[in-house]
Amino acid sequence: MNGLRILVAIKQVTQADFADFDASGRMLRPPEDQGLNPFCRRAIATGVTLANQHGGTCSVVSMGPPSATQILREALAVGAHDAYLLSDPRFAGSDALATAEVLARFIQTRSHPYDLILTGRFAIDANTGLVGVQLAELLGVPYAGAAKQLDLHDDSLLLSTELDDGVRSIRVTLPAVVAVAERICAPAKASPEAIEAVSVTAIQRLDADNLGFAHGSPSSRTRVNRIQHVSLQRLNIVIDGATELDKALALLGDRLLATDQSPTPKPTTTLSLARVAYLCDPDQPALNEQLVTYLLNGCASNDAQLTVLSFATTPQTTPHALLGAHHLIDLSGSRLEDDLAPVIAAWLQNHPQQLVVAPATSYGRELGGRLGATLNAGVLTDLDQLTITEPPTITGWKSVGSVASVAEVSTTTTIGIALLRPRGVSPVDRLVHTEPTRSALTVPERGRVSLTGSPETQDVAQFANAPLVLAVGAGVANDELADIYQLAATVNAELGCTRKIADRGVLPRSRQIGITGRSISPRLYIGVGTRGSHNHLTGVSEAGTTVNLTQSPPLGDPGVDLTIIGDWHQTLPPIIAHLRSLLERYTPTPPRR
Fold first, then answer.
1. How far apart are CA 563 and CA 236, in angstroms?
2. Rounded to an integer, what distance in angstroms lies between the CA atom of residue 470 and that of residue 477?
3. Confidence band, pLDDT 50/70/90 cuts, at residue 28
4. For residues 419 and 365, is the Cβ–Cβ distance under 8 A?
């Protein structure tokens, strides 16, 4: 395609590990801490490259305060053709859907349509991952994310997309919205001198009136009620690995053999609702079982009716995982989110629910985001817990900003959508074991998105429930990963990683731990070559014992039980050997939640 018109939507974010919030729950953004979202750098680089290859243009747009001019100047410095800032006090505090509505209005007011709209996979401050898919729904175009390979063929794209739980190859018709992965290309970066050479006057600024919001602007369907800074109650012991490793081994033995050192279990959710629906991820049966169990325990105390929508493997047999649900909708046909979303939306319009739940996987995120835009519903992402007390308001808790902060978030709409993080949810006995009533829905193909190969998926529940986890960080070279894998295998430990390792492509995104990855709660977590960032440690806040092997002493509170200073090549092997000896006497079990 010649003359390809590309738009890249980018965001200004805080670069600090910690984030503060005002009394209303709005994130405070000191100008000196602001910069271009790292995920957006790949989107800019991809857009500029495609435009140059096909004789097209690459525009950039950002919605934000006047200070966001700086990231637009940087985009122009690396080759973007023009830039737009959507800035108005009326846009302040917008959630994902309100942001998508402003971007959609901007796109619809352009004199020529865009062929391709690119975004980053996430924004590191909020991590909703919803703006791109909700923008696609509002524009009535297909969506794909996160693309780690992108090839243009006539009026369509061939994509290799990186899911939270695997990889999928698809064809997407244009126009489309595509979120790009970190691995697609090198990030776009400009020198301070190159940015300074771009005049501020090159940025075209538009406010709410320019975009046709004469009577106000889109309102948010979600809100942050409060922020709590919580204590992890870690031991925060620092040991010199060269001279005091025996102390570390003794401490690990004491902790692992203790009768009750698991995290305090969270209370079971109480769903004070009448109608709840759960959307199964067809590739994650174990995760579906855990989350359905979680919801059933909440439903039982209030006679709530739980409907489960699932692709049936055997039409006349109820999967064991779904026993206890009150209603079961057997889905058949296309399993692609682009095809499924309108079918589920139509069912919800005919069978109103107060709460719709899906796992916070790539599948659940796209489906939940599209349903939120279609039904004008608030979408709460990456929840660790539901705490619904005042229906129809849906309320939940999620990690934000730093390892020591959690936010209570809620919807402002009559129907709420909650995406629960994949994590270990203890399977307790269901209180109802009756056969559910059944009906069926067929999902036709729309043809906008199609598979070009068999998806590769992984069981995210297995990782979430692992009793022992080794997480590798930037201090581990690519060619050293095999050695750590072999050590981990000797104690049946699962291997996880930080975002930087996932960005390298040596471990899949499904193994990333942290705010933009997984939350796990093993009995023992060992970080190898990690710097102990707060965004990473958020993912193990509920681990029984946390250990970090690092070269440099921590600055301030390390946020882990045991920090061992030294070369991990010297400290990790004896730790693994000690764990093997402990396993001869004790078999770890997943902690209570």
1. 7
2. 15
3. low
4. yes
Q: For the whole model, what pTM was predicted?
A: 0.84
Cis preceding linkage at 577, omega within 30: no
Contact 430, 421 (CB under 8 A): no
Contacts of 408 (CB under 8 A, 6+ apart): 224, 225, 226, 227, 228, 387, 395, 396, 397
Tokens at residue 228, please?
A: 């709590």
* Cα dihedral 550→552→554→559 (10° resolution): -10
Pair 424, 590: CB distance under 8 Å: yes
Cα-trace Rg, the chain: 24
Please state, in angstroms and rounded to a whole number, the distance separating the CA atoms of residues 388 and 321: 24
Sign of the Cα torsion 540, 541, 545, 547 reads positive
Who's near 350: CB < 8 A, 6+ residues apart? none
Tokens of 557: 């509170």
| Confidence tier at 427 by pLDDT (50, 70, 90) | very low
Maximum Cα–Cα distance for the chain, whole Å?
A: 72
Taking a C-beta distance cutoff of 8 angstroms, is the pair 500, 474 a contact?
yes
Instruction: Report pLDDT for 444.
Output: 98
Report helix, strand or coil for 361: coil
Rounded distance between C-alpha atoms, residue 60 and residue 80, angstroms: 7
Q: Which residue has the tokens 């402990």?
A: 582
Q: ω before 123 within 30° of 0 (cis)?
A: no
With residues binned 3-state (H G I as helix, E B as strand, rest as coil), the percentages for the chain, rounded to 5, are 30, 30, 40
Question: Tens digit of pLDDT for each residue in 195-248?
Answer: 999 999 999 999 999 999 877 778 999 998 888 776 556 888 999 999 999 999
